[in-house]
């Protein structure tokens, strides 16, 4: 009898543990297709994994298969409580089963297991039934991204006002690393707030919604904003100089672009959206 | 009984988010905390802030779940760099992870999978532990995992494999007493054989946790109090290895902090009451000076 090497053994176990319909089904399917897992299954599963009458090899592997799925399900439920509340436990279970087939975790931290879920949801059948689901998932992921983003020293108003007048045009504002900008088609913060505050989640209205999510000290905040503010924050993040931001406001047809920029800058400083760091 | 070569941190508990507020209000008199390394491999925010506060008052140990020392995939250098950064920042008494594999082909199962105990695996793991220790600039401790399957092609028992890894790679052993018990039931071996085979000088730490009985097998769920038979085995372990640093793990159905602390207190009492472990040097001060009592 030839035993599989370490790599063959591990690849075989990975395939069986992550199979969507259980170990027995995966083995049947492999046998049907004449797939012996690169030789690892040449002599059958019992030649690789010990089993006995009480606990056959297949059932032993099933223990791991269940732990794999339910550990990830639990972790993703914590990351996406509102998505879970809107579609209910059974559909969340189905969603995650489908998601893990397409996106089995690759990162060493469970923290990133759900990083593709918002994009995945948009092409999932559930999106047809709950058209705001993708937006809601994107919103929840943004909250998580802000939660543990880098800590930064915030830019203060006195630091900014101390700048010589000639420096303003080339000034590159530095939005904080925690800032997440979302352009949504549905007003999902309303739904999220319901879940967050323990109410039954409402259907999000079909309403274009621009949201910024950020963290100040240890608290994560979100605010619905105007489309032009979102565009300006995106431009600032991309490194556009202050003069360019002002031009964009003027192009947008604002009646008083200077006042608008001043008001935004005031709010960004007050809410801790700008970091005190050198542009990269 | 032997005197552990690594001074004891005493009896601590695993730090879990639901206990932060209690700890920050009460600063309870546990000896130390163990933290899951990966939970703090983030750029910033509350997790690192909390750990900074904890570290100001308590010794900590970094306990990882994703080193995947037995994987056939290459070692993840990004992971190791994060771990080294974390260790530099928080100065843990030591770093530990599991003698297992957690993924292959670039995928992560987020579970602790058992290894075939063969000469091939032994060479592979020893070489990787040595590389990890070189990278981190320090020794690490490897923990035995609970398992639900064994491999037909294993050529040695787990205790022989664990001892051989520790000796050949010159690393420590984090001995999970509950895991020995769970695996002993699942694979029908005598847990005392396990203890008897281990090199005492390699035992840096014990883990204690609760498990669930599923009828045909035990599952290492960390969601119950430590079972009496596991306490009995722990008593055997401290009789054999001395008053080694001990840690209570609880990850699901987590009780209020005082219940967790009572478990650590019970472990401490067992250490203190076992006459033949109270030898000079066995209760030396922790290597990390940190007064955790306000």
Tell how many strands the DSSP assignment of chain A holds: 3
The percent range for helix content of chain B is 25-40%
- Return Rg of chain A in Å: 25 Å
Straight-line distance between termini of chain A? 60 Å
Q: Total number of helical segments of chain B?
A: 9
> What is the tally of helical segments of chain A?
12
Largest sheet of chain A: 3 strands, antiparallel
Oligomer category: heterodimer
- Along the chain, the helix and strand elements of chain A come as HHHHHHHHEHEEHHH
CATH superfamily of chain B: Divalent-metal-dependent TIM barrel enzymes
Strand content of chain A: 5-15%
Strand order of the largest sheet of chain B: 1-2-3-4-5-6-7-10
Question: Ranges of chain B with pLDDT <50 over ≥5 residues?
Answer: 277-294
Would you report the number of β strands of chain B? 10
Q: Could you estimate the helical fraction of the residues of chain A in percent? A: 40-55%
CATH class designation of chain B = Alpha Beta
N- and C-termini, Cα separation of chain B: 35 Å
The whole-number mean of residue pLDDT values of chain B reads 92
Strand order of the largest sheet of chain A: 1-2-3
Compact summary:
The complex is a heterodimer of chains A (280) and B (294). Chain A has 280 residues and is mainly alpha-helical.
């Amino acid at each position: 009898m030839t035993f599989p090497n370490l790599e063959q053994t591990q690849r075989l176990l990975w395939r069986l543990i992550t199979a969507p319909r259980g170990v027995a089904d995966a083995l049947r399917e492999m046998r049907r297709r004449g797939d012996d897992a690169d030789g690892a299954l040449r002599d059958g599963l019992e030649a690789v994994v010990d089993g006995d009458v009480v606990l056959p090899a297949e059932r032993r592997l099933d223990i791991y298969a269940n732990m794999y799925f339910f550990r990830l399900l639990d972790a993703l439920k914590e990351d996406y409580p509102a998505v879970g509340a809107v579609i209910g436990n059974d559909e969340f279970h189905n969603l995650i089963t489908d998601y893990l087939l397409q996106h089995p975790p690759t990162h060493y931290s469970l923290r990133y297991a759900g990083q593709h879920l918002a994009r995945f949801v948009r092409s999932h059948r559930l999106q047809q039934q709950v058209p705001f689901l993708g937006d809601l998932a994107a919103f929840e992921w943004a909250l998580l991204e802000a939660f543990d983003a880098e800590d930064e020293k915030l830019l203060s108003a006195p630091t900014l006002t101390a700048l010589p007048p000639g420096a303003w045009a080339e000034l590159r504002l530095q939005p904080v690393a925690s800032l997440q900008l979302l352009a949504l088609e549905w007003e999902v913060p309303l739904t999220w707030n319901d879940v967050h505050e323990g109410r039954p989640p409402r259907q999000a209205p079909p309403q274009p919604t621009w949201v910024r999510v950020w963290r100040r000290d240890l608290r994560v905040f979100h605010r619905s904003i105007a489309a032009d503010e979102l565009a300006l924050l995106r431009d600032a993040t991309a490194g556009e100089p202050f003069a360019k931001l002002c031009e964009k406001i003027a192009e947008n047809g604002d009646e008083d672009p200077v006042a608008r920029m001043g008001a935004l800058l005031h709010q960004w400083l007050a809410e801790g959206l700008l970091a005190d760091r050198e542009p990269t | 009984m032997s005197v552990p070569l690594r001074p004891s941190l005493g009896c601590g508990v695993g730090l879990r988010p639901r206990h932060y507020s209690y700890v920050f209000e009460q600063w309870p008199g546990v000896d130390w905390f163990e933290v899951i390394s990966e939970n703090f491999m983030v750029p910033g925010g509350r997790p690192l802030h909390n750990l900074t506060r904890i570290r100001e008052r308590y010794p900590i140990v970094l306990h990882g779940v994703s080193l995947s020392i037995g994987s056939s995939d290459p070692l993840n250098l990004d992971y190791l760099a994060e771990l080294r950064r974390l260790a530099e920042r928080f100065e843990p008494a030591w770093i530990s992870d599991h003698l297992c594999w957690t993924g292959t082909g670039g995928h992560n199962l987020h579970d602790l999978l058992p290894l075939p105990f063969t000469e091939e695996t032994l060479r592979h793991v020893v070489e990787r532990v040595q590389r990890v220790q070189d990278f981190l600039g320090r020794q690490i401790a490897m923990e035995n995992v609970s398992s639900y399957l064994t491999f037909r092609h294993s050529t040695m028992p787990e205790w022989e494999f664990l001892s051989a890894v520790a000796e050949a790679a010159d690393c420590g052993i984090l001995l999970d007493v509950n895991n020995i018990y769970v695996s002993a039931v699942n694979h029908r071996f005598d847990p005392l054989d396990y203890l008897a085979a281990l090199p005492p000088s390699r035992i840096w730490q014990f883990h204690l946790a609760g498990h669930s009985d599923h009828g045909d097998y035990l599952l290492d769920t960390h969601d119950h109090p430590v079972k009496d038979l596991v306490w009995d085995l722990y008593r055997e372990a401290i009789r054999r290895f001395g008053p080694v640093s001990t840690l209570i793990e609880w990850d699901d159905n987590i009780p209020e902090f005082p219940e967790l602390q009572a478990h650590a207190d019970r472990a401490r009492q067992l250490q203190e009451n076992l006459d033949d472990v109270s030898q000079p040097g066995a209760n030396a001060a922790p290597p990390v000076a940190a007064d955790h009592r306000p």
